Amino acid sequence: MEDNYLREMEGKQVHDPFYHRNHNNNNNKKISCSPPPRRQEIVMGPVIVGAGPSGLATAACLKEKGIPSVILERTSCIASLWKHRTYDRLCLHLPKQFCELPGLPFPAHYPEYPTRAQFVDYLESYVSKFGLRPRFDEAVESAEYDEDAGMWRVATAANAEYLCRWLVVATGENAEAAVPEIEGIGEFVGEVKHSSLYKCGEEYKGKKVLVVGCGNSGMEVCLDLANFGACPSLVVRDTVHVLPREMLGKSTFGLSMWLMKWLPIRLVDRLLLFGSWFALGDTSRFGLGRPSLGPLELKTVHGKTPVLDVGTLAKIRSGQIQVLPGIERVRRHTVEFVDDRIEKFDAILLATGYKSNVPSWLKEGEMFSEKNGFPRRPFPHTWKGEFGLYAAGFAKRGLMGAAMDAQKIAQDIEKCWFIDTEPKLKTNPNNSMPFTRSPISFFPKTTTSQ
Ligand SMILES: Cc1cc2nc3c(=O)[nH]c(=O)nc-3n(C[C@H](O)[C@H](O)[C@H](O)COP(=O)(O)OP(=O)(O)OC[C@H]3O[C@@H](n4cnc5c(N)ncnc54)[C@H](O)[C@@H]3O)c2cc1C
How confident is the model over 354-381, as pLDDT tens digits? Predict the structure, then answer.
């Protein structure tokens, strides 16, 4: 069967313009600057794009079921977001029991909110435990479903092309920094950088720093700056729900999850807002007005995460952090705000969030929106598309969502993986999967061509 398949793939290459071009170029010495032919590899299991928590969890769940996979990662390490694009003081925002990946609990000695370094160590142990070996420096440049072959063609910057029946998109909701257009920002003579490049407030000691964006990152960066003796100001353009990280000695998140089991979402929102008012007071007095929808409803309807306060509000109250309205424009040394205030700053930090990069490489118009790179269907239907396409970590539910996606994806793939293989394969100790069925036969062709 495998021979049949490979013969059929050879047949397809005759019609493949990319292969044809490279093949011809290879034989035509006159064209000296042509790229070398792409290395082609048929992957027996799924290709997973991204070696962050979602990709690793999916590979681990698959491996537990005896299904091998190939993880392609653009950087040279696992969890690049956590290792290289987060600040030093970062701890998990949610208690550890809500951030575990399938198959490995956090070590018992870890605190309730593990530090960034502890979380990275945990992910390294995860990779060791499940024997995962992501292929590093393999940025996926394009992935397209080949209807004739019934397979995905995944091309990487390392000049390789992988062919697979299942493709798992695990490139993250935070793949690229989102940088808004701000009039005049190019004129500013001081430093301008995105919060993903911010490490620590030490270098800003004594400086006036404007932090744009009041999500969890913006609020925490301000706190860090204030702790290191800088003079931070926070731009708050919209309304925002700030909640204490803990209420009644319990994590606000855990409490909400528990209450949601018994009560309707709106009632839980009311209780949360009452608890927040009790713990933090009226946040609108400090320029942090609340949206009309409650925090959980807002998260469910618009995916907007409430801010869990870890001490920033106290610094705002004490005047160590100044809250400012939206920016009108930036000049060489100053920033003008919509209320006509003009202030001088030494640096501007953009805590303006992240965006998905899926539209830049996935050639597919059904499952993912080309506009924002997120699955079009709402939760809980974000994880599965057509023709063996899956999304892990795109449910706007953090690490808990990633863990759930990983398990669902592995279960779904398992259903057709063992469809007509011998039961003994499940206990194959080497995980080297004999391929007894042509992958082409798994997905019916929707169109006939060539
Ligand atoms: C500052 C900050 C704090 C956070 N804190 C929490 C928290 O406490 N709790 C929580 O649940 N969530 C938190 N999150 C959300 C967090 O991003 C996710 O929970 C988690 O990292 C998602 O994992 P992921 O694997 O889906 O995405 P990522 O961690 O972003 O991993 C995606 C991987 O894909 C790779 N990649 C991207 N494009 C390509 C490509 N074209 N080819 C190959 N590889 C590619 C990236 O290099 C990356 O390694 C936080 C996010 C940020 C930014």
Answer: 999 999 999 998 999 999 999 999 889 9
**Please, what's the b/e burial string for 14-35 (b: 16 or more CB within 10 A of its CB; e: otherwise)?**
eebeebeebeebeeeeeeeeee
Note the pTM of the prediction, 2 decimals: 0.86
Provide the pLDDT confidence category of residue 33 given band limits of 50, 70 and 90. low
Cα(45)–Cα(141) distance, integer angstroms: 20
Strands (DSSP E) found in 238-306: 242-244, 246-247, 250-251
- Which residue(s) pair with 413 in the sheet? none
Residue nearest to atom 27 of ligand 1 (CA): 172
Write the single-letter amino acid at 305. T
Name which residue sits closest to atom 41 of ligand 1, judged by CA.
Answer: 140
Q: Is 221 in the pocket of ligand 1 (CB under 6 A)?
A: no
CATH number of 178-353: 3.50.50.60
What is the number of the ligand 1 atom nearest to the C-alpha of 94? 8
Answer yes or no: is the C-beta of 251 below 6 A from any ligand 1 atom.
no
Compute, in angstroms, the gap from residue 66 CA to the centroid of ligand 1. 26
User: For all residues of the chain together, what is the average pLDDT?
Assistant: 87
pLDDT by residue (tens digit) across 104-142? Answer: 999 999 999 999 999 999 999 999 999 999 999 999 999
| CATH superfamily placement of domain 39-175+356-441 | FAD/NAD(P)-binding domain (3.50.50.60)
Q: What is the best residue among 81, 156, 304, 390 to mutate for testing ligand 1's pocket, by most ligand atoms within 8 Å of CB? A: 81
Q: Which of 115, 197, 399 to mutate to test the pocket of ligand 1 (most atoms within 8 A of CB)?
A: 399
E strands along 314-353, which residues? Answer: 322-324, 327-330, 334-337, 342-344, 347-350
What is the domain partition of the chain in residue ranges?
39-175+356-441, 178-353
Cα distances from 359 to residues 70, 98, 183, 449, in angstroms, run 21, 30, 27, 26
Fold agreement between 39-175+356-441 and 178-353: yes
Pocket test for ligand 1, best of 54, 80, 168, 174 (most atoms within 8 A of CB): 174
170 Cβ closer than 6 Å to some ligand 1 atom: yes
Which ranges of 366-442 does DSSP label H, i.e. alpha helix?
398-417
* pLDDT value, residue 438: 37
Q: How large a percentage of the chain has pLDDT more than 70?
A: 86
Phi and psi, residue 237, nearest 5°: -90, -40
What is the distance between the alpha carbons of residues 433 and 68, in angstroms, rounded to a whole number? 7
> Among 55-59, 201-205, 315-319, 428-432, whose mean pLDDT is lowest?
428-432
